[in-house]
Amino acid sequence: MGCYWPEIQAAKAADIAAHGTAVFNGGAASILCTFPNLGQTNQGYLFLQEFFVDSFIGIVIWSCLDPANPFVTPVSVPWTIGFAYTAMIIGFAANSISTNLARDLGTRIVAAIFFGKEAFTYGNGYSWIAILVNVPATIFATGYYELLLRDSLQKLAQGHGVHEDGEEGLVRHLTRVETSEQGAMNSTFNQREKDSNV
Fold it and tell me: Quick check: 51 and 38 in contact, CB under 8 A?
């Protein structure tokens, strides 16, 4: 605020002259925190939108943390979360999303200091949706992932190998056959020859 004070004051004055306030989506106060668009007055819709994006990013993060997930490697985790967040922003940021209590509350308090209490009251109390919805959405995402996705990925990560003696037989077989890279290639070649002779 100190570094850009002249520019912020000029933008605030222009907003007040044109709209009567600087607290709206696209106004000077929106450099600090999120406000809904002028036509977004349905609190249920704003709640659903915030809940959806917060749940989405929560599920993506849980999938990245799951060691049984064969689709995300440790190297790709930052990219996966980054692309998910990018998709979320491209899809919903024009409709006002917050996604984070820590990112919204502190900056909204600063906005209230410099632009008045309207930072909290604008949009029929939208600020509480931006501040609080991510908590139940993240709890929902955690439960959804743990109850519905985690077990499926653990089974998938075990692979499709089936041995007559079960998992222990498969481990014994793979340990015996693939003792070295050359041995693995030879065993594959020999197996193909056997299959073609049968």
Answer: no
By C-alpha distance, which of 144, 107, 147, 145 is closest to 127?
107
Map out the domains of the chain as residue ranges: 5-160, 163-198
The architecture (CATH level 2) of 5-160 comes to: Up-down Bundle (1.20)
Contacts of 131 (CB under 8 A, 6+ apart): 98, 101, 104, 105, 108
Using 70 as the pLDDT threshold, list the residues of the chain that sit under it.
151-163, 167, 169-198
Residue 160 DSSP label: S
Closest CA to 4 of 27, 25, 21, 28: 28
pLDDT per position as a tens digit, 48-84:
999 999 999 999 999 998 877 878 888 999 999 999 9
Residue (of 43, 38, 40, 79) closest to 60 by Cα position: 79
